Amino acid sequence: MRNPQLNAAGALTHLLTLEGLPAEIIVRVLDTAVPFVSIAERDVKKVPLLRGRSVFNLFFENSTRTRTTFEIAAKRLSADVINLNIGVSSTSKGETLLDTVDNLVAMNADMFVVRHAQSGAPHLIAAHLDRTGRTHVHVVNAGDGRHAHPTQGLLDLFTIRHYKHDFRNLTVAIVGDVLHSRVARSLIHGLTTLGTPEVRVIGPKTLLPTAVQSLGVQVHHDMREGIKGCDVIVMLRLQSERMRGALLPSTGEYFKHYGLTGEKLALARRDAIVMHPGPMNRGVEIDSAVADGERSVILPQVTFGIAVRMAVLSILAGN
Amino acid sequence: MRRRRTTLVAMPDAEQALAALADRMRGAIDFDARFVGIYSGGAWIAERLARMIDGDHPVGYIDVSFYRDDFSRKGLKPEVKRSTLPFDVEGATIVLIDDVLYTGRSVRAAINELFDYGRPARVELAVLVDRGGRELPIEATYTGVRLAVARDHSVVLSRAADGTLALATEAARA
Fold first, then answer.
1. Nearest to A47 by CA among B168, B76, B21
2. What's the longest Cα–Cα distance across chain B?
């Protein structure tokens, strides 16, 4: 069966997940993002690549940051951007997801950026468009349920490559709420595909998926032990809003064991970088002094995220 | 995939064409004209010209991929380079430099990109080879050599490890 993200020629036509995406396609996105970073430094922060194209942001779940960065990325490519906050419109009147999509295609949408609480929703839209012969319309997954968040994974990879240059000698630790994190899943797939020799996940048993080892990672429950010798530390947000039942005694207790403090950071390599996909819970998973410290690359991640999304949108639109 | 390199018309010597181009520019260009090479052939030529011509000629580079008019048909090429202009474009005299002037579409794209950095006082164009076949009203200010080449062939500039430039023709991409 063909990878649903690739067209008949093997080129990327939808971005749904990093799982199973060939390394050369991931590297191409990262390479293409490099020249887009410098566009933000010019007088005119815009190129005419997607002039006349319409990008629809379909957000069935709230997200200010991801929606905004996609919007900026599309606008810097000169596309027209239409934001639909679906949660409060048609679906509440009973329209199905695919009917909504068909209506927007009838309004000449060229691209959908989809955020949905249900895993697989972007995939469903992409398959529907392909099945009905509308292969010129592209879908980007902007986060679906617990499944994937491929552009966040790509911007994390871009950030790591920017500071560490090569994946093939790195030790990367992903710390915290891996269970609820599509960010972690996407990053693990990307790191593995690009040949990272050691990826560790660190967290309490209740916040790690049961078969997490099957992703090719080492599991640590003791953060001090897990963080030793790491080049890159990715802190995850504690997603209290997704938690059902008592997974944790308290956020204070969590911080004591799994919060990144200067003292724990000292156990990693001296040149280790600290990342966080945002939004941060200061004093829950990360200490303010570390978040604002010199090893933190959390704000560059946001800047790179726009360039990476520009690369994704322009590669898809050209295929 | 390696494309067949054939020489249907006798190709002029690239180094001689470069010397001829430098001769035409000497004395004619502003002493502080900024050189902007269009990747990749134009970038090589811009670097060489900056060393061959007296004056203060800082070199910048442009990759026109984000400004091309054939994006809808061809998509984005695989290796887009980063445009870098290490000087102020506003009010400057700019010499755009390319290896081969053909349809004029790359030059149009380069001019458009240049203006997103600022408003230059003047823009000139220097090319190693003018092969005719224009599809836009664009002409070079300085030309190394003029050539007639069949439409189904491209003129390709290559650079050896020691920096020597060479011209060849090859069957054009579809």
1. B76
2. 45
Q: What is the pTM of this model?
A: 0.90
Count of structural domains, chain A:
2
Strand order, beta sheet including B5-6: B5-6, B165-171, B153-159
CATH architecture of B5-70+81-171: 3-Layer(aba) Sandwich (3.40)
CA atoms within 13 A on the CB side of B21: 31
Q: Which residue of B has its CA nearest to A31?
A: B79
- Report if residue A5 sits inside a domain: no
Query: Do residues B58 and B34 lie in contact, with contact meaning Cβ atoms separated by under 8 Å?
Result: yes
Query: Domain containing A169 — which CATH number?
Result: 3.40.50.1370
- What pLDDT, on the 0 to 100 scale, is given for residue B1? 45
User: What element of type H or E holds B72?
Assistant: helix B71-74
How close B115 gets to chain A, by Cα (Å)? 9
Residue A288: other Cβ atoms inside 10 A: 10
Reported as a pLDDT band with limits 50, 70 and 90, residue A159 is very high
Substitution target in A30, A31, A47 with the highest count of B β-carbons within 10 Å is A47
User: pLDDT (tens digit, 9 = 90+) per residue, A275-288?
Assistant: 999 899 999 999 99
Ranges of each domain in chain B:
5-70+81-171
- Residue-wise pLDDT tens digits, B53-63: 999 999 999 99
* Chain A residues with CB-CB distance to B67 below 8 A: 47-49
Do both A132 and A42 map to the same domain?
A: yes
Asked if A318 and B76 count as a contact pair (C-beta separation under 8 A), the reply is yes
Q: Assess whether A174 and A290 both reside in one domain.
A: yes
Structural domain boundaries, residue A127: 23-149+303-318
Residue A244 within a domain: yes
Same domain, yes or no, for A105 and A155?
no
Cα–Cα distance list, A29 to A6, A21, A130, B77 (Å): 14, 11, 23, 12
Chain A residue numbers with beta carbons less than 8 Å from the beta carbon of B115 are 44
Rounded-to-integer distance, Cα B130 and Cα A191, Å: 47
Euclidean distance between CA atoms A276 and A271, whole angstroms: 17
Dihedral-angle region of residue A56 (phi above 0 means left; psi in -120 to 50 means alpha; beta otherwise): beta
ipTM of model = 0.82
Q: How far is Cα A171 from Cα A226, in angstroms, rounded to an integer?
A: 10
